[in-house]
Design brief:
Blueprint lengths: L1 H28 L6 E12 L4 E13 H20 L3 H9 L4 H21 L5 H24 L9 H27 L6 H6 L1
Antiparallel strand pairs: 1-2
InterPro entries: Heliorhodopsin
Keywords: Membrane, Transmembrane, Transmembrane helix
């Protein structure tokens, strides 16, 4: 077990370095004038001419998709360096007990960040929707941690937490599907091909 842990330690240092270099590469090669998308908020406004409440969209600010890719790599890099250095002792004890708690926290942040990037690629710019997608994906991963802790050392697995996590995790993809359908049906089908490949 000791040799495996030493090998894993080297692996984590390597992956931490690799992800950090990837973050730097994306940061320096990305074009700040491309991949810029708006973040919007939707609300009701009163139209005096028609005396009706109408849906209105307001742009809050813009973001560059490259930021999310850089953020994803930096979060992954930080997690690998964290378990390879200051958290190494606890991390290795957890592994010997058959659990890896850190990965679920890392996934909750990094995977959710990437889900926001996919959302933007799918045409989801509404801030409220992005918050919901991030939160649901984070909850799904944290339920993975709960699943691991609840069933640690047990022969009879309780799948309830897993099922709830799957329900939370599928909702963002349903939202993506609705936006892709809307774009394809009503917007002329301008969704990039690689977004379909993501599905």
């Amino acid at each position: 077990m000791g040799a495996k842990l030493k090998g894993l330690h080297r692996f984590n240092l390597f992956m931490g370095s690799l992800h950090f270099l990837q973050a730097l590469a994306v940061f320096f090669i990305s074009d700040p004038t491309k991949g810029v998308v708006p973040i919007t908020i939707n609300y009701l406004s009163f139209d005096v001419a028609t005396s009706k409440l109408l849906p209105t969209t307001q742009e809050l600010f813009t973001v560059n998709l490259a930021w999310f890719v850089v953020g994803f790599f930096l979060l992954s890099s930080t997690a690998h360096f964290f378990i390879a250095t200051i958290y190494r002792t606890t991390y290795e004890k957890d592994l010997q007990r058959g659990i890896n708690k850190v990965r679920w926290f890392e996934y909750a942040l990094s995977a959710s960040t990437m889900m926001v990037a996919i959302s933007l690629l799918s045409g989801i710019y509404d801030l409220s929707s992005l918050v919901v997608i991030f939160a649901l994906n984070a909850v799904m991963n944290l339920l993975g941690l709960t699943m691991a802790k609840e069933n640690q050392g047990k022969t009879q697995i309780n799948w309830l937490t897993y099922i709830i996590g799957c329900i939370a995790g599928i909702v963002p993809w349903i939202i993506f599907g609705i936006y892709v359908y809307g774009s394809d049906t009503y917007g002329g089908g301008n969704i990039p091909t690689f977004v379909y490949w993501i599905y």
